[in-house]
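Holo prediction. Input below; ligand is calcium ion.
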Amino acid sequence: MAALLKSLVGASEKSARIAQLCRQEEALFQLLIEEKTGTDKNKKFVQDFKTLADVLIQEVIKHDFPELHGHIGGEESNQFENKTLVVQVCATQQDTASLLFTILDRNQPAAELLAAAIHQEVALQDPALDAVALAIPPERLAIWIDPIDSTNQYIRGQARVAPIGGICPSGLCSALVLIGAYDRSSGDPVLGVINEPFFREDPLTHRWQGVYHWGISYQGTSLSSLRRPPLRPEPCVVLSSSETLAIQRALRPLYGERLRFASGAGYKMLCVILGLAEAYVLSEGSTFKWDSCAPHAILRALGGGMVDLEAALQAWRAGQWGALPELTYNQPAGGAVGAERWANRGGLVAFMHREHLEVVLATLATAAL
Ligand code: 2IP
Ligand code: CA
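Structure of the complex:
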């Protein structure tokens, strides 16, 4: 288990390094902003670049854990646009660079920078990670990856956004790497790694320093790099800036000024994990399994969880308080196609303290939504 956890943390470090590099190195940043004139084109290219990052990180994990082959998922198309080329981590950095050179339209500097990041040894000096002795056979697990969540903020790149109550409404800090593992048969989240590539900017070198967090929750054993935050007397809830007015109106009397807004689905979940918010409420089906799996596993490791909002409200209204449905990760949504199959379609509530989840549900269950 320690080996798998270490490998996933290592993969998150590589992904974070790629995310940092893309902002620091002109050759890579150009890939993100290229063809900015046609919004559709730009969107497509960003999506493609993101898919490339996604596939590369999946390949890093496959490389380390062949037994996970076929059980690593990410953004909608796991195939990169150019289907005649198989994106993979090659035996040598030079070979990976040559492959990327072809994929990236003969852009040599970009190919070399990416290959170097992928092949760089990640030296993890983390005694807490080494001490994890839990045995979970990797063949029971499958993986969801989001190599860069909050892409919009990542591209926009605002470095200094003042936090409100510890929560940044926008900015680079909301761009996160999310890697989660779930139990293939039960669908429960088991292990999560969240990497913050833009945690701190070195004032001298202007280089970004990252930080990672992890958590495991499996068969009654819970371990995490973080501590469970307390339930504060004046709780706060965090929402998407595009959350419906009905939800905002319903929650306003309870939270007042402590109704906060932030970009990034993963970032809002991280705010709950770190105790900056007591809950994240989302009424729309705009997040996906790769957004929620890693944060959900960490929440569970700390005694919290993440429920399907629509199903939880239904259960609450029916008086079935004991069985509030947590999100699961192994079943596609019936009748959906493409990425939608893996959407958290009923919305969600991420919470740390069960009593606070109950407050949220009791409030929303009687509101006109
Ligand atoms: C997005 C990203 C958005 C979020 C959306 C996610 O993932 O996290 O910020 O919307 O739900 O799917 P919002 O910021 O309104 O919460 P990605 O950036 O990977 O597409
Ligand atoms: Ca995402």
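The CA atoms of residues 233 and 278 lie 10 Å apart. That is the main takeaway for now.
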